[in-house]
Amino acid sequence: MPVRMGYALLLSAALLLPIACGSGAEQPGGDHRTRKPLTAISGEQELTRIVTAAGERLLMFDFYADWCQPCKELEPILESIAVQKADVVDVYRVNYDENQSLAELFGVRGIPFVAYVKNRTLVYSLMGLRPKETYLEAIESFTRPSATVAEKGSGVRLNLPRLPASEPIKQGGQAESAEQR
Fold this sequence. Notes:
Blueprint: H1 2-21, E1 38-41, H2 44-54, E2 58-64, H3 69-84, E3 89-95, H4 100-106, E4 113-118, E5 121-127, H5 132-143, E6 156-157
Parallel strand pairs: 1-3, 2-3
Antiparallel strand pairs: 2-4, 4-5, 5-6
């Protein structure tokens, strides 16, 4: 009997080890190599900090709801993309029901809704569940060395709260979504 308990303890330790290895202090918007693949955004201040700190790095924001089945199907796809493309993009999740002001800022009209942001500008968005390749193609188009927001058409500069006065906010047309193409 003691041998079985020993195996049970060893197995429990092995299962818990990966969970316990993280410091728990990873901060969204920080070093992309030390944070979880999908980081939840909880409000405008956090979004502002992340977008401002990102500079030219591409960001993806997944608007979801716990009750939404397509959103649940999208989550592992985005987790995979976040790991696979960690060198060029950071992926965040925003609970639609808990962050209506952020959904309004991004023009969310249905979920799942994935928004691509670069240089504080909403450059592209997708509504509905799409194949993984669709999300990867969008990442590729905005991370190529020659890709700039100007080349991709007019984006909407995000009117983020509490930004330094030295940062002008551009008002542009609507970001082009897949439905508009």
